[in-house]
Structure formats: C-alpha cells, structure tokens
From TrEMBL:
Upper classification of the organism: Bacteria, Pseudomonadati, Pseudomonadota, Gammaproteobacteria, Pseudomonadales
Entry annotation: catalytic residues: K35, Y255
Pfam families, A to Z: Ala_racemase_C, Ala_racemase_N
Name of the featured protein: Alanine racemase
Keyword set includes Hydrolase: no
Residues the record lists as N6-(pyridoxal phosphate)lysine modifications: K35
Cofactor entry: pyridoxal 5'-phosphate
Molecular-function GO terms, alphabetical: alanine racemase activity
Length: 359
C-alpha cells in the first residue's frame, strides 16, 4: 500500500483554459507558457496535452526547452530569459528555440559566435527587470544588422508590471511606450501580455500573447478567483485521512499548541504537509474539502501532515481523500489564506507528490 497523496491533473481542463486564452487573445496567437515544470503540473505532459492546439511554447531557460524536445514535440520554444552562455546559441539553432535577447552581453555573444537563432528583443517599458530601453533600440538594431543577425529577429517582447491590478495606470503607459519604441519596425512581431492582460478590456495583445497561470486555472487578477474568470481548476491536490480522534475541550493540536479546542471536536490528520509543498503559512480556518463538503485546517501545518476539523464531515473515516485545493476549494483561496498567490502554491508542490493525469 502506498500513500495516496497525489496531485490529480485534469488535462481537459488545461486544454479548455488554453482555448479560453485564445478566445480572449482575439487576433493574437497564444504561446503556452509551461515554465517551472508546467507551473508544477509536469512540463512534458502539459506540453503534450497542448501540442495539437498551441503553435508555440514559452519557458524560462534552455533546460526546460530541452525537456519539451525530449517529449517528442517540435513546436518552437521561446526562452523568456534567453541564453545563459554563448555556447547555447548553437543549441537554439539546432532545436528551434527562440531566445529573448534582453541585455548587452547576449548581443556580444551573437557577435562573437556569429551564431543567431530566431530570437526576440526585450524592450524595458517599465518593469525594469530585463530589456533594452526604448532609446537604445536603434543602436541595438544597427549592431544586429552588422552581425548579420537582423534577419533572424522575430520581434519585440515586453512584460507588464501591474496587469493584475485593473486600477493601475501602468499597463496603459507600458503599452504606449512599447508601441512607440517599436513603431520604426512595423513588420516585426510584437508580444506583450501575461494571463492578466487577457482580462483587461480593450488591451492590445498584438501578435503573440503569453498566457501562463490561466492555463492552470489560477487567477491572474487581484480579487478574483480562477472560476470567477471562467477558468477551470486543473490540479486537484488530494491526501488521505490517516487518523481521526476527538480532541477534548481545552486540548491543543500540533506544534506550538496554537489551536485549542473550545469544545470536544472530532479532528483528522491528513497525510500532506510543507514537505509536499502545502504552505506552512496556511493557518487555522484555511479551507479544505472532503466529499465535496468544506472543512477547515486547525493548528500548524507540519512537514508530513496537517490537522483538519471534521465537524462538517462527521462520516469521514480513515482513508477518505481530502482535497487541499481543486474543485471545491480553489487554489486561489488557499493561496490567499497563506499570504501568497496560486503561482507559488502550484509551482511549489514537491517531487514527493506523484502527478496523476486524467485526460
Ligand atoms: C511567466 C511569464 C509569463 C506568463 O505569466 P502569467 O502571469 O503566468 O500568465 C509571460 N511572460 C513572461 C515574460 C513571463 O516570465
């Protein structure tokens, strides 16, 4: 008998969410962002499940792109962080990886090696993490022409800092800066737009959008859950009850004794903890579910288990599967109880948790 703790992954829901992204992208095409092991869902299976609909993938680094090739998939893969070494450029050519060139050193590598894969130029429109300033673009383009790499340039990318916040003026300002910066090269493609940008009315997404979290059913928008945005949960994180007991009034449960029973309470221990990626910061009253009924966590999350109050599920016995997040309890809700975002919870599920695929 093995521990039945598992992340159940609904690949149909993933495909439906990708379709939703495409509908919201309008005339833009959507590159499927599958970095960080497909946001914790398993990059090979996620990429394969989207392979008949997604014309392009995006990942952070070349190692992730290689796992897509190892899965037998041939679509171009954008490397959002570009290459980390000059020697990787040849591999990009060979495998049809499209690195983003975001800094001077990466331009140097193209000049020094004379190797240029298809690539993208990153424009810094206000995020101020990566990219060239709009003023620098003419000089960059001149260098590319001189290095005979200009023909390989597919287009320009930029990234929004505040697209999750519909009250922010930043996205409109960044969009205007991006359009102005790239207007001298109208035949090149343009890509902005993480998931959140798909939900901003009237937001231009140009040629390619880059949906990530929305494919996995997590909400990219502050104050909204994935289902409220028409997204389907993809991961259902489940773990079994491994014991039940009555905690008497006045007794505490778990490390630190932080939760004390006010009355005799039937509680259960669930075989999942922060060693599996369940957030330790999720405190008492964080929701979970059993048989479609909502229950709550009590006390501190341990490495391998956590405690739940079974008052709402009096029939629940040892072995019953508890949903930590999924259909009944949204991952966004749990994230908010833990002071974080669904991205961190989904990417944080550790390798101890087997991924089980439904398609
Ligand atoms: C991760 C990433 C995305 C996807 O962002 P989501 O918020 O998950 O949709 C898009 N573009 C870039 C540059 C990224 O790094």
């Amino acid at each position: 008998m093995s521990r039945s703790t598992a992340a159940h992954i609904d690949l149909n829901a993933l495909r439906n969410n990708y379709r939703t992204a495409c509908e919201r992208a309008g005339s833009a095409q959507a590159m499927a962002v599958v970095k960080a092991d497909g946001y914790g869902h398993g990059i090979a299976r996620v990429a394969a499940a989207l392979s008949d609909v997604a014309p392009k993938y995006a990942v952070a680094c070349i190692e992730e792109a290689i796992t897509i090739r190892e899965a037998g998939l041939s679509q171009p893969v954008v490397l959002l962080q570009g290459v980390h070494a000059a020697g990787d450029l040849a591999e990009c050519v060979q495998h049809r990886f499209e690195p983003v060139v975001h800094g001077e050193h990466q331009l140097d590598w193209i000049e020094q090696t004379g190797v240029a894969p298809d690539f993208w130029l990153k424009v810094n429109t206000g995020m101020n993490r990566l990219g060239f300033r709009p003023d620098d673009l003419p000089a960059v383009m001149a260098r590319l022409a001189k290095a005979n790499a200009r023909a390989r340039l597919r287009g320009f990318v930029s990234h929004f800092a505040c697209a999750d916040d519909s009250d922010s003026l930043m996205t409109a300002a960044q969009t205007a800066r991006f359009e102005a910066a790239t207007s001298a090269w109208p035949t090149l493609m343009k890509s902005v737009g993480n998931s959140a940008a798909h939900f901003i009315p009237g937001q231009p997404l140009f040629d390619w959008s880059r949906p990530g979290i929305m494919l996995y059913g997590g909400s990219p928008v502050i104050g909204k859950t994935g289902p409220e945005l028409g997204l389907e949960p993809v991961m259902s994180l489940q773990a079994p009850l491994i014991t039940t007991r009555i905690v008497r009034a006045g007794e505490s449960v778990g490390y630190g004794g932080t939760w004390v029973a006010e009355q005799d309470t039937r509680m259960g221990m669930v075989a999942i903890g922060y060693g599996d990626g369940y957030p330790r910061h999720a405190g008492t009253d964080t929701p979970a579910a059993i048989g479609g009924r909502r229950i709550r966590l009590i006390g501190r999350v341990s490495m391998d288990m956590l405690a739940v109050d079974l008052s709402n599920a009096p029939e629940a016995q040892v072995g019953a599967p508890v949903e930590l997040w999924g259909q009944t309890v949204g991952v966004d809700e749990v994230a908010s109880c833990a002071g974080t975002i669904s991205y961190e919870l989904l990417t944080g599920v550790t390798s101890r948790v087997p991924r089980v695929y439904l398609s």
